[in-house]
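Standup notes, structure subgroup. Blocker cleared on the manganese (II) ion input:
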Amino acid sequence: MRVAALSDIHGNLPALEAVLAEIEGEDFDAIVVAGDTVAGPWPVEVFDAVVRLDAVIVGGNADRAVLEREEGFGPGHAWCADRLDAARLESIAAWPLTHELDIDGLGHVLVCHSTPESDMPIYTRITPDTEVVDLFAEVAADVVVCGHTHMQYDRLLSTGLRIVNPGSIGMPYEGAPGAYWAVLGPDVEMRRTEYDTAAAAEAIGALGAPAEQQVEMLLEPPDPVETTEYFESLRGS
Ligand SMILES: [Mn+2]
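Run returned:
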């Protein structure tokens, strides 16, 4: 079984389309989406695209922020909610926090945005082992596939639990432009799909979407080492 793991699309349709073109050319049995799908410049188009894929989708904090029309956490959540009709908003509200599946070579896999209980905790590739172990103390899986921090990594905890973050399709903090995702099964293969980020940034500007921060990050992707240190400074504060 081969599964495409996508996360943090953040309403970036050109990025998603580039990845889907790559996926179409290969043999995948399933697609999982680890949250933060619709909050961004093309909420409707991205929602429709992932639903058409018959993908397994879990909810993220930014999807929840759209539903709650949250202000101050990031721009544009109410703008996104205004574009999604009642039926789509109802579907988004029904996205679960977790999904579990078995993948040959990896074992039992749990997909969640951050942890099975919450879409909010921040942990990175360098968060102390004991702290990440505590976050997943209740998890009976071989692998956790998560999103949330927009950086690819694959780490093994002292308990034997493997944490895989496929990175972000639509707003990566990787230093280099592109759409980041992963192939699951029989092992884990990290991918970066290139697309025209300058054209995407221009198209977002033409939409009038309140996504200045995303545009900035597409044009000048944040450095992953600095971003990891920044996230670590936020933890526990
Ligand atoms: Mn996100």
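Discussed briefly. The chain has a mean pLDDT of 95.
Next: hand off to the docking folks.
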